[in-house]
Design brief:
The complex is a heterodimer. Chain A is α+β, with helices and mostly antiparallel strands. Chain A has one domain: Sufe protein. Chain: A, CATH 3.90.1010. Chain A contains 6 helices and 3 strands. Chain A has a 3-stranded antiparallel β-sheet. The longest helix of chain A is centred in the last third of the chain and has 19 residues. Chain A is globular and about 45 Å long. The N and C termini of chain A lie far apart (31 Å). By secondary structure, chain B is of the alpha/beta class. A 7-stranded mixed β-sheet of chain B has the order 4-10-9-8-7-5-6, sandwiched between helices. In chain B, strands 13-14-17-16 form a 4-stranded antiparallel β-sheet, with helices on one face. A two-stranded antiparallel sheet of chain B has the order 1-2. The longest helix of chain B is centred in the N-terminal third of the chain and has 21 residues. The chains are: A alpha+beta, B alpha/beta. The interface between A and B is medium-sized, with 17 and 17 residues.
């Protein structure tokens, strides 16, 4: 008997994204795609764009909100910079709607594979590194509640 | 006249590529590049006479001490200080400011007032806030107008016999506006207040004359004027430096030590505890030589041409707004395009090989004044070219197309 796959894993989504990005020839196409992602998606409910949810980078601001739905963590987020927002859209696609355990165990190495590594450098100070930390912190907090 | 083709050959870094494109370095207000002449001095120091200074009787120590003190004299001459011991070596502008702020903590009383300008870098705000917290003195702010100029009539009203200190930058790092420091100093002295001028942004462009300015303290960093990072200077009038207590305790700054009492060394050693950045100090002197050989008049003329050319070309871009429109400016352009975030523009132009600064430039009060998250800042040096301005403007246009 083989096991029926019921959920899409973080690894699957990351592989999908890597495949999508492999179609782009150069950085400009990648950036145009991210700008599109950043422009098109409403990423967070305005009521959650509070000071409490803000991550202040030196450069751009990032808001992150988390809530538990069934056994999954749902993330919504936003940024005032469009490229940062595009990367947030990718991160949300990877981490949202996953179990706390899966989020804790996941890595973000795929960002290197899609040529956006520089945006996740701590020295870039755009709030994204702190955002990933925050996502992990929420997952740890929810996991603790489940235990 | 300045021959930029010849000058560029002095800077090895300017021929490297970034993201496959020739580097266009327009972040000179953050740090300037280093010419081979200065790099050679650094290599020569570590290759030939690296030794601790002031205490050794051996030859190497003597050579290093001579070169280090020679550098102090070069700085003295450059800034036209009356005495060499009025020049204190520090780790940079921030260290210099903290040294003075710390010293004033023992001189201020709770009903005293200190004045700072609205155009300051955080490094010229935070130490004074800390000083005021410690002493109970009140911090007052000279406001700025829409053009990025200080409102001098308000400054006159802030001054009183309670004012003990005024702190202002010579040139704003975020906007490039030149402040009327002569006037600021003269008015402060009339009420008996001392003035500290932060020259970090001015020294790459102009040659300040501290005696003519009659300024009490003037501070600068080597790395913004073709020297290495981690070294800078504090000029202080002898009478003020004698009044201030030492900043740090340690070797070098003492005359005599027993467990009962320590007497401090004379100026400048009183403020130079521990082993200093010897190589950095010597290289600072070499950087000053290098810039003087080109000539500050030549530098100013050329940079003003670059500024005018870049300003005109940028303003052709739809929705582009320049912050800091004073007539008195150095070669810095701080701008935004419509509501596009500066981070987005900076990220795209970097891909095209252009290095600019984005963000609040450690001057959040200025950004709050304009109600913006930050700006894109291009800052030009005498080794930048008109062709580089073209590449930069095209990169900004490309970013604008992609983002709007």
């Amino acid at each position: 008997m083989h096991k029926i796959k019921t959920t899409v894993t973080i690894k699957d989504i990351q592989n999908d994204i890597i495949e999508e990005f492999s179609m782009f020839d150069d950085w400009m196409q990648r950036y145009e795609y991210m700008i599109e992602l950043g422009k098109s998606l409403p990423l967070i409910d305005d009521q959650y764009k509070t000071d409490e949810n803000i991550i202040k980078g030196c450069q751009s601001k990032v808001w992150v909100h988390a809530e538990m739905k069934d056994d999954k963590v749902v993330f919504t987020a936003d940024s005032d910079a469009i490229i940062t927002k595009g990367i947030i859209a990718i991160l949300i696609r990877v981490f949202s709607n996953q179990t706390p355990k899966a989020i804790i165990e996941a890595d973000t190495g795929f960002i290197d594979d899609i040529g956006l590594k520089e945006h996740l450098s701590p020295t870039r100070a755009n709030g994204l590194v702190s955002m990933i930390k925050q996502i992990k912190m929420y997952a740890i907090a929810y996991q603790t509640q489940l235990n | 006249m300045l021959d930029v083709t010849v000058i560029r050959k002095d800077f090895p870094i300017l021929s490297r590529k970034v993201n496959g494109k020739p580097l266009v370095y327009l972040d000179n207000a953050a740090t300037s590049q280093t010419p081979q002449q200065v790099i050679d001095v650094i290599v020569n120091y570590y290759s030939n006479y690296n030794a601790n200074i002031h205490r050794g009787v051996h030859t190497l120590s003597q050579e290093a001490t001579d070169k280090y003190e020679e550098a102090r004299k070069k700085i003295q001459t450059h800034f036209n200080a009356e005495k060499a011991h009025e020049i204190i070596f520090t780790s940079g502008t921030t260290h210099s400011i903290n040294l003075v702020a710390n010293g004033f903590a023992s001189l201020l009383k709770s009903d005293d007032e200190v004045i700072v300008s609205a155009l300051e870098h955080h490094s010229n705000i935070v130490p004074w806030q800390m000083l005021c917290e410690k002493t109970g003195a009140t911090l007052k702010v000279i406001p700025m107008n829409e053009k990025g100029e200080l409102v001098m009539s308000d400054y006159a009203n802030l001054l009183s016999n309670k004012t003990k200190l005024v702190f202002v930058n010579h040139i704003s790092n975020a906007l490039g506006v030149i402040n009327p420091i002569e006037d600021i100093i003269e008015k402060a002295h009339k009420v008996g207040a001392a003035v500290l001028v932060d020259g970090a942004q001015a020294c790459p462009h102009i040659k300040p004359n501290v005696q003519q300015l009659d300024v009490d303290f003037y501070v600068a960093s080597a790395h913004k004027m073709c020297g290495p990072t981690g070294v800078g200077m504090l000029y202080g009038k002898e009478k003020w430096l004698n009044k201030l207590p030492p900043y740090q305790g340690g070797g070098e700054m003492i005359a005599e030590v027993t467990f009962e009492k320590t007497t401090y060394a004379d100026l400048p050693h009183k403020f130079e505890a521990g082993t200093p950045n010897i190589c950095g100090g010597i290289a600072f002197g070499a950087a000053i030589d290098y810039m003087n050989a080109i000539g500050f008049d030549n530098i100013a003329t050329y940079e003003n041409e670059l500024l005018a050319y870049a300003t005109k070309k940028l303003l052709d871009i739809e929705g582009l707004r320049i912050y800091g429109n004073s007539k008195h400016k150095t070669s810095v352009i701080s701008f935004n395009i419509g509501n596009v975030h500066p981070y987005d523009i900076g990220s795209i132009v970097d891909k095209l090989g252009v290095a600019v600064r984005t963000g609040h430039h450690c001057a959040q009060p200025i950004m709050d004044f304009y109600k913006i998250p930050g700006t894109v800042r291009a800052s030009f040096a005498f080794y930048n070219t008109f062709e580089e301005v073209d590449v930069f403007v095209d990169a900004v246009k490309k970013a604008s197309q992609m983002l709007t």
